[in-house]
Design a protein that fits this description.
It comes from Gulbenkiania mobilis. Keywords: Isomerase, tRNA processing. It catalyses: uridine(38/39/40) in tRNA = pseudouridine(38/39/40) in tRNA. This protein is of the alpha+beta class. The protein has five helices and ten strands. Strands 1, 2, 3, 4, 5, 6, 7, 8, 9 and 10 form a ten-stranded mixed β-sheet that branches. A hairpin with a 2-residue loop joins strand 8 and strand 9. The chain is globular.
């Protein structure tokens, strides 16, 4: 049978999602815990491969198993074998044609950015940081340039393996409360480092180093070498994966799971 899981993790201690020879990844950690419950080796497939230091409030994975276990066993049983910074949120049996990556039609990310003269300590590794206030109005105006379908080569990492740089952003919202800026993005898919590169460029707009027209030219240039640096991974969270309703899976994280940044 094929099982889909919703996973939450704090990425600070891990070298990203994808398995590595040293084993210090979320995938390696999860597969060991699943094997303990399944009684056989398990290989997982994820909706998206998060980088080192990036978090997830809703990662979706699937795996195949011959073990007949209850949903409760795949949640509470697996969690008993996981460290405190990784948790299974839900488990659903799915049809054999379900694929955590290829069945998805959208991904959503949130980035939390603290603007304050002093770096965070309680939020260290869990929130991005910039040392001065930013013009959120200008940032919001620039972000509007990215809505719709575009070639996002200017926001693509050099090592990106995607076949095409053309993606469609359906949502890019910025909200600010007491110096904490939240970026919420939804797209059909994201390029490697795309969200962090967008945040980095919008920070340049917010601090006055790049105007809105210049930001639009950056997008049109389709040239990563002309863009601002990639922003830190600390404040980035995968928050949802969209699937056809026929699969019966939650589309996004429960907002309460991110309540610590309200």
């Amino acid at each position: 049978m094929r099982i889909a899981l919703g996973i939450e993790y704090d990425g600070r201690a891990f070298a990203g999602w994808q398995t590595q020879p040293h084993g210090n990844t979320v995938q390696d950690t999860l597969e060991k815990a699943l094997a303990a419950i399944a009684g056989h080796p398990v290989q997982t497939v994820a909706a998206g491969r998060t980088d080192a230091g990036v978090h997830a409030a809703m990662q979706v994975v699937h795996f195949d198993t011959t073990a007949a276990r209850s949903a409760n066993a795949w949640v509470r049983g697996v969690n008993a074998h996981l460290p405190a910074d990784v948790a299974v949120l839900w488990a659903h049996e799915v049809t054999d044609d379900f694929h955590a990556r290829f069945s998805a039609f959208s991904r959503s990310y949130s980035y939390f950015l603290l603007t304050h003269p002093v770096r965070p300590s309680l939020g260290a590794g869990r929130v991005g940081w910039f040392h001065q206030a930013l013009d959120v109005g200008a940032m919001r105006e620039a972000a509007g340039c990215l809505l719709g379908q575009h070639d996002f080569s200017s926001f693509r990492a050099a090592q990106c393996q995607a076949k095409s740089p053309v993606k469609t952003i359906a949502r890019l919202d910025l909200t600010e409360t007491d110096g904490l800026i939240r970026f919420d993005l939804t797209a059909d898919a994201f390029l490697h480092h795309m969200v962090r590169n967008i945040v980095g460029a919008l920070v340049y707009v917010g601090k006055g180093a790049l105007d809105v027209a210049g930001f639009a030219r950056l997008l049109a240039a389709r040239d990563r070498t002309t863009a601002p640096p990639t922003f830190m991974p600390d404040g980035l969270y995968l928050t949802g994966v969209g699937y056809p309703e026929s699969h019966g899976l939650p589309a996004s994280a429960n907002p309460a799971r991110l309540a610590f940044w309200r």
